[in-house]
Design brief:
heterodimer, A: alpha/beta, Rossmann fold, five-stranded parallel beta sheet, 19 helices, 9 strands, about 50% helix, about 10% strand, B: 8 helices, elongated
């Protein structure tokens, strides 16, 4: 028996080793190909890291962490580092539609730069409305040049939803006043891949929340194309960097779930990774803000935490260089990586059981209680009338059976 | 003097399923409402407690048990050699009988509907509705169980039902629908129990005891 297990283990190990060897080979081939094909770097990553005061050791530590986050074995550490050095050579066109630019802000603003941020800064952005110096016709020319220079080579990153109502006229951009729909259709048709950053471009987010006056939709829905959705409000930079690294290493986007989100980042729920999960299972809940439970770091389920319904890796990678994340900071998850979370996750600071229909106190349970009350009243009335009728007929006639 | 004839109405399998469902549904309702509104227990060390975990295990266990009971009932409905076939759910198709039944229940008329099927016409409609409710609550339940695990049977079912999960607006929508359907069960139980008592009183056929003994008493003229 034991020998059988050992034999099976050995076979499994061999198979895994073979799989990884194949993956390593593919990865090396693709990285070599990228070395030849991509435009050369203006400033190598090593120099940039040095000038920012990040040591080689920190960089290697970062590549080990990122390898683990991507669910790859340690043999890929050096490949992740190599891909990171190529990161700045991928041409990127970054479009903004109906959104708040919070995702760009989340990526750019840090108290001190970490490796993820520095790598993002090396990104060769051909067009980015918030960052570029050019304006007006000059900006439009930059976009046109990027499309001309790198057809089918650049990655199109989109931030923001597309209002589709009124022929898309709720959103017009640039000197020529083109609608978001036109710009998006033109750019995505020439892109090697489309990455949607944030819940707006992924699923529509707050623009698409009820009553959705502009008929806003996520990019995939609005254009009918397949996109990689890095959802979140804002999403974690790690998830974006990891996805691009995967593209550089294997020449393809990582496996996606049925909503287009990379499985390595969005495969499990907040609830599954949550550091407060033991308090959930034990039955220790925060009842109101600032109570003993809150001070002890208990579960936020009764404060409306939507972690059980939300797929994301926030608890694992956290935000701002791993300093904290919403639940760690003491507020429940509000489910920002899920489609239509403003509607489906409401009320955000109460459990789903307290969702109201048509306002007021009309929760499922109150409606249920009212219906149960009506049913009980009906039963009593029916019983009473039946009783009175039978009392009225002293000699009870045998009920006539038809059949 | 009135004479009665004993008639076998409910076979053992049906009675077993009925009372299993009763226990299961009551356990599920109580544990389900606890999961929706858990009680906070601050006493003792976290490591020594597993209250919510245990109640969720109980809820999942009985949920899966309900699934198997439904499969068993569906099997009987399709292949039973005794009186338990699905045709009884079509009792409402006799519209004339249906109207007679409604009039009788509303105490408008004294005329009883014909005993064509094992169920009355309205009863068959209510049970069809219950079957739909049961399918819906089991599916939403399995989706939520599936989300809890990374491998095994429930994960397989969960990924199979993924399109339904997305159509319902993610796990939050699934959870809400699960909660709404639970109320359907409560309302059904209220009406079902009252009707059983009422029928027992009016028909005097021993309807309530029939779900234990399996036999009803029909008057012989």
């Amino acid at each position: 028996m034991n020998r059988n297990f050992k034999k099976r283990d050995r076979e499994l190990e061999e198979r895994i080793a073979q799989d990884y060897q194949r993956m390593v080979k593919e990865c090396d081939l693709h990285l070599d190909k990228m070395d030849h094909e991509l435009p050369s770097l203006i400033e190598p990553l090593a120099e940039q890291l040095e000038s920012a005061g990040v040591s080689r050791r920190s960089f290697m530590k970062w590549s080990a962490v990122t390898t683990a986050a991507l669910m790859l074995p340690p043999v890929f550490k050096s490949r992740v580092a190599r891909a990171a050095e190529q990161f700045g050579r991928v041409p990127v066109v970054w479009l903004h539609f109906a959104e708040c630019t919070g995702c760009s802000e989340a990526f750019l603003r840090t108290s001190y730069p970490n490796v993820d941020d520095l790598i993002l800064e090396t990104l060769s952005i051909e067009y980015h409305e918030t960052l570029m110096a050019a304006a007006g016709y000059q900006a439009e020319e930059n976009l046109a040049r990027a499309l001309r220079d790198f057809p089918g080579k650049f990655i199109c990153v989109i931030e923001g939803a597309l209002p589709t109502g009124m022929d898309g006229k709720y959103l017009t951009l640039g000197a020529k006043g083109r609608t978001g729909m036109e710009v998006a259709r033109e750019v995505t048709s020439k892109a090697a891949a489309v990455i949607c950053i944030g819940s707006c471009s992924s699923f529509g987010n707050v623009q698409a929340a009820k009553p959705n006056p502009t008929d806003a939709k996520g990019i995939g829905d609005a254009l009918g194309i397949k996109t990689v959705n890095i959802s979140g409000c804002p999403p974690n930079p790690v998830n974006f960097v990891g996805t691009i690294l995967h593209y550089l290493m294997f020449g393809a986007m990582p496996p996606l779930d049925s909503l287009g989100r990379p499985i390595w980042a969005y495969g499990k729920r907040i609830h599954d990774y949550c550091e407060r999960r033991p308090h959930y299972d034990a039955g220790e809940y925060v009842e109101e803000w600032g109570d003993t439970g809150a001070k002890n770091g208990w579960c936020l389920y009764k404060m409306g935490c939507k972690g059980p319904y939300t797929y994301a890796n926030c608890a694992k990678v956290r935000f701002n260089d791993g300093i904290s994340w919403p639940i760690m900071a003491g507020h429940g998850c509000m489910g920002c990586t899920e489609p239509n979370f403003w509607d489906t996750m409401a009320p955000l600071e109460k459990p789903i059981a307290e969702k109201t229909f048509g306002g007021g106190e009309k929760t499922v349970d109150n409606i249920g209680k009212a219906l149960a009350g009506v049913t009980a009243a009906g039963i009593v009335a029916h019983g009473a009338v039946s009783y009175i009728k039978r009392q009225g007929q002293k000699d009870i006639p045998k009920p006539q059976d038809e059949g | 003097m009135l004479k009665f004839r004993m008639k076998k109405e409910w076979w053992l399998a049906i009675r077993l399923i009925h009372w299993s469902v009763v226990i299961t549904v009551f356990t599920l309702l109580i544990s389900g409402f606890y999961i929706a509104y858990p009680l906070s227990n601050g006493a003792g060390a976290t490591a020594d407690k597993f209250c919510m975990g245990n109640i969720r295990t109980l809820h999942t266990f009985f949920g899966v048990f309900l699934t198997f009971l439904m499969i068993w009932r569906a099997y009987l409905g399709l292949f039973a050699k005794f009186h338990a076939r699905w045709h009884d759910l079509l009792a409402w198709t006799n519209i004339h009988n249906l109207i007679t039944q409604i009039k009788f229940y509303l105490l408008v008329s004294e005329k009883k509907p014909k005993h064509e099927y094992q169920y009355g016409p309205l009863q068959s409609l209510a049970y069809s509705g219950l079957i739909l409710l049961q399918i819906a609550i089991i599916m939403t339940g399995l989706i939520m169980v599936g989300a809890n695990y990374h491998a095994g049977f429930s994960t397989g079912v969960g990924s199979l039902l993924k399109p339904i999960e997305i159509a319902m607006g993610g796990l939050a929508g699934v959870r809400l629908i699960h909660h709404i359907i639970a109320w359907g069960f409560i309302l059904f139980i209220m009406v079902h129990v009252y009707m059983a008592i009422w029928i027992d009183v009016v028909y005097k056929e021993g309807t309530i005891s029939s779900m234990v003994s399996g036999r009803v008493f029909r008057k012989v003229d």
